[in-house]
DNA sequence: CGCGGTGTTGACAGGCTTCAAGCTGTGTGG
DNA sequence: CCACACAGCTTGAAGCCTGTCAACACCGCG
């Protein structure tokens, strides 16, 4: 019975709520069993918690189960760039696993639960389940694709376009995994985060967000925003939006 | 004899000049044989040639054997962002292979030769050689790391810092694979390319490069620049440089 | 109550873009 | 041979976008 209780503290992979979402590809029973054994535990964090630190050496890989956060890097004088956001189904720590040392930090924006995997078992995954290995490459390549898009945004779009792009991106990403309904309303974030993502100052970010609000595309609320018109945002950004593809889930 | 001549047109993987470079990890004989069969041919391009087009669906994956080029994306109105540069040992087309459609273009800056692989054999690679599968994930994760760094640069560094970062990056990357000796001199590139990488206008890029030249860090020549002082560039950029790690080569 | 975090706004300065013109070297065709 | 076009580089001037500084409102919290 003790064992049973210990297991009850974690979500069984067999009952993983994320697998209910049709956006994630189906697993065979043997894959499910392997991943279930691969999973070493769960990590629960508070909002604002730092999960991984730039320069550290963490022996784990994580998959987000609930909540959301972001990856970021710092320059020596404190300037911060937010690289991407992480939401349920996303994997973090892969870079650290492969490069040895984390090259970026990860922070939670809400309370989060993460599935914990051991780096060391990575090689076994590739040996026993080539399709899962392919999935991990898929995940890395997709993250790369998103970063490409962000780089275009920061490099070549105007402040208004960038902001519209980011909010549309977050909205699409969140709704795809059920983090938000039609609105971004329950996604807690400050304008400082937005600014550090867009590569803008906080003052100009504020003024830019107000312009989007004036166009009735969003409503900024305390620590977050509600998206009123995704299509409008996409149009302002000059962006097609993300392809709705089936994706793997480790 | 005909066969022999036909084979002579391509570089045998067993005699691949890149494998001489100690920066690339050693291959076992069975890995070498597999990759050798995986390789379907070679592609030779002129300077300025477009190798992959955004939105197209190309059934190949490539590894750069000689020369260099870049990946880029366009906005609808023609604004261009260069995402990263490709040099010997780099793999391109992986995203297309996994996402189906290319989300960026690839152009040659010099004459190039590329090893051609078939997408379809990818899965077999994962099945037969898990370590090669892991290598491909390694490559994708590393590209992601570089993009993180570029994003920090474009988002948070000043024009001067950005330019210094980029030139130091290119210099390090090129010397690591023997593309350049101590100078970048034989790397042909225009200031328009630099501008599209940094997210700056060409006019301001020109003025920024002159500032670097005034500091005796570089000398701009016709279609390219010579790096006089890498450490100085790194210092201006506030960047540590790239870790000199052993890397895989497919 | 004071305090810190967040959001808002105005004024001003400066970095960067745009416009415009001119220079150089290369190639093409008369 | 020269004229011409073109691509790349350079420079100056004007103006806008964005950053910085500063002040204030609001809110939750100790």
TrEMBL record, chains A, B:
Keywords: DNA-binding, Kinase, Transcription, Transcription regulation, Transferase. Pfam families: cNMP_binding (PF00027), HTH_Crp_2 (PF13545). One of its GO terms (biological process) is regulation of DNA-templated transcription. Residues 157-231 form the HTH crp-type domain. GO terms for molecular function: DNA binding; kinase activity. It comes from the Bacteria. InterPro entries: cNMP-bd_dom, cNMP-bd_dom_sf, HTH_CRP, RmlC-like_jellyroll, WH-like_DNA-bd_sf, WH_DNA-bd_sf. PROSITE patterns: HTH_CRP_2. This is cAMP-binding domain of CRP or a regulatory subunit of cAMP-dependent protein kinases. The lineage of its organism: Bacteria, Pseudomonadati, Pseudomonadota, Alphaproteobacteria, Hyphomicrobiales.
